[in-house]
Amino acid sequence: MTDNKAVISLKDVSIFQQDNLILSDVQFEIKESEFVYLIGSTGSGKSSLLKVLYGELPIHMGTASIAGIDLLKLKKSGIPKLRRQLGVVFQDFQLLFDRDVHDNLLFVLKATGWKNKAEIEARIEEVLDLVGIKTKSHKMPFELSGGEQQRVAIARALLNKPAIILADEPTGNLDPKTSDDILTLLHQICKQSNTAVLMATHDYRILDKFPAEIMRCEAGKLRTDKLLKEAN
Ligand SMILES: Nc1ncnc2c1ncn2[C@@H]1O[C@H](COP(=O)(O)OP(=O)(O)OP(=O)(O)O)[C@@H](O)[C@H]1O
Ligand SMILES: [Mg+2]
Questions:
Q1: What's the structural domain count of the chain?
Q2: What is the CATH number of the domain that holds 68?
Q3: Is residue 150 classed as helix, strand or coil in its secondary structure?
Q4: pTM for this one?
């Protein structure tokens, strides 16, 4: 078996929010098609770590790359390119509420340089099919349930075939059954399209039901599953 490529690799990274050190000596690797949970109590630094990875929070020490992009050399002008390599999913879906599902997806494709109309329409249909809401293309976001809105957000994240999906508590606003459906979908995407997934969550029920690697933010450090096992 050949080794999968690392899609995220961080070493000796310190993460600050303004002048406050949130996580120090952060070190981990995520490979193609790996599914990893990021857990830790509120304020422990999960969202801060994800923000570093999608270029919202700059870092100034260590080495860090995601999808082949060096995060220490990342400039504001390089952020759109970085975002094209990633799919980001949030707790509150963050859809555009003034347009239908199709046009939410169209907006992203146009913003990321897609020009060919037939290719655009084919890709929109493809991602809606992948997340199981092909028939909702012309619904407005407010006409959809929370779970359906999250499926649109996941479809949007998949548009540019990202190497990795970063999800910050994607089930935080959903009931247990709908959360399970979204987790099933994320695990399916991970397996079928080799997309790595890094998902922050508070929900220990999910960790039991859909087991995968775990990283924990705790006392200013990031601890991996392996280290946790060794400590026990
Ligand atoms: N924009 C900001 N400016 C200053 N400090 C911030 C900012 N965002 C977060 N922080 C601080 O950074 C620390 C880590 O916050 P972060 O949002 O990463 O935690 P979290 O683990 O995602 O928590 P939660 O589970 O509540 O989402 C907290 O002490 C928080 O107050
Ligand atoms: Mg958070």
A1: 1
A2: 3.40.50.300
A3: helix
A4: 0.94
Q: Which residues surround ligand 2, an ion (CB under 5 A)?
A: 46-47
- Specify burial of residue 119 (Cβ count, 10 A radius: 0-12, 13-18, 19+): exposed
Tens-binned pLDDT, residue by residue, of the chain (232 aa):
445 789 999 999 999 999 999 999 999 999 999 999 999 999 999 999 999 999 999 999 999 999 999 999 999 999 989 988 999 999 999 999 999 999 999 999 999 889 999 999 999 999 999 999 999 999 999 999 999 999 999 999 999 999 999 999 999 999 999 999 999 999 999 999 889 999 999 999 999 999 999 999 999 999 986 555 455 4
44 with 15: CB under 8 angstroms? no
Domain span at residue 17 reads 6-231
Rounded distance from Cα 124 to ligand 1 centre (Å) = 34
Domain assignment present for residue 45? The answer is: yes
Ligand 1, pocket residues at CB < 6 Å: 17-18, 22, 40, 42-48, 217
Whose CA is closest to atom 19 on ligand 1? 43
* Assigned domain for 1 exists: no
Tokens of 41: 């109590």
